[in-house]
Each structure stands twice: as structure tokens, then as C-alpha cells.
Design goal:
The protein is mostly helical and 121 residues long. Helix content is 74%, strand content 0%. It is elongated, with a radius of gyration of 42 Å.
Length: 121
């Protein structure tokens, strides 16, 4: 009976030691997460401060955007009128007589083949 009691005490001590180590590891990880969250919170507050300076100008930007959006149909119709008057229309009678452009000097002769003794015409 004495051996069973000693084994039970050793078992309980090992369980408590394992739980203590586990809690120590989890506590360190939670402390690291808390540090990162604190840094993230500082960044969020900095972003909010930047956004607060931008906020008053948003109404003016939205008004300007509305004016531009309202003018787009007029600008589009004006641009169509300009394009119709300036578009090139090819003469169909001269299309069949056109030849492709060739370089003025004709074919270019390479001297690389002369070095190895090959003759290319």
C-alpha cells in the first residue's frame, strides 16, 4: 500500500509541474501578443489622426467629383463631334495599287557568313 501512495504523490506532483510549465509558456505567448496589439493600436491611432485632417476636405472633393461627373456627357458628345470631323477615310480607289514599303538599300548583306566560308545570295 505504501508504494501506491508514493506513486500517487509523484503523479500529482508531475501533473502540477506540467500545468505550471504549460501556464508559463502560454503566459509568455499572451504577453508577446499583447505587445504586438499595443503596437497595432498605436498605428491605428496614427491612421485615425491622419484621416481626421483629411475629413474636412472630403466634402469639397465630392462636390468637385460631382461637377466633373455631370460634365462628362457634354464632353463626350463634343469629343465625338471632333473625332467625326478629323477621322481619316481612305480612298478605296487607291487601296489596290498600294505596295508594301521596302528599305531603300535593298537586302542587307552580312559579313558573318564570309568568316566561316559560307556564301549566301
Amino acid at each position: 500500500m505504501k508504494g501506491l501512495q508514493i506513486f500517487s504523490v509523484i503523479d500529482i506532483v508531475a501533473l502540477i509541474a506540467g500545468l505550471a510549465i504549460y501556464l508559463f509558456i502560454v503566459g509568455k505567448q499572451l504577453a508577446a501578443v499583447a505587445t504586438m496589439l499595443e503596437e497595432a493600436a498605436d498605428l491605428v491611432w496614427a491612421i485615425k489622426a491622419d484621416a481626421d485632417t483629411i475629413e474636412p476636405g472630403l466634402e469639397r472633393i465630392n462636390t468637385t467629383g460631382g461637377v466633373v461627373a455631370g460634365a462628362l456627357p457634354l464632353l463626350y458628345t463634343m469629343a465625338e463631334g471632333i473625332v467625326v470631323g478629323a477621322t481619316y477615310v481612305a480612298d478605296p480607289d487607291h487601296e489596290e495599287h498600294r505596295k508594301p514599303n521596302f528599305p531603300a538599300m535593298g537586302h542587307r548583306r552580312s559579313r558573318l557568313f564570309d568568316g566561316v566560308g559560307a556564301k549566301i545570295d
